[in-house]
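Recall the central idea of this unit: under ordinary conditions, the amino acid sequence of a chain determines the structure it adopts. In this exercise we apply that idea directly, starting from the sequence alone.
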Amino acid sequence: MSKIARRTFIQLSAAASAGAFLHTSREAVAQDLPQVDESSPAAQALKYVHDASAVDPATRPKDDAEQNCANCMFIQGADDAEWRPCTLFPNQVVASAGWCSAWALKP
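Accordingly, the structure predicted from this sequence is:
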């Protein structure tokens, strides 16, 4: 099991809690949702980028070049979709090729 810093855990918990309480009048599909803006406060807090290859592996909590949103436990939706919903960014989609500091290997 990976060790998560207390501050990161609190940020992730807050994001997940906020997503749990949001409700829309109809079920949204990925095509209807906006892409995460890399300059948004939430994205900056989690160091989200649309292209994981642009991230220096040495700056990642685990030096693993294979980290990307497509193999993260927080991503949802179809495995072959380029943009998919993520539980950390409610009502938005992330790039399957993206990355953020909350990355955790999908079980």
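The chain has one domain: 29-107.
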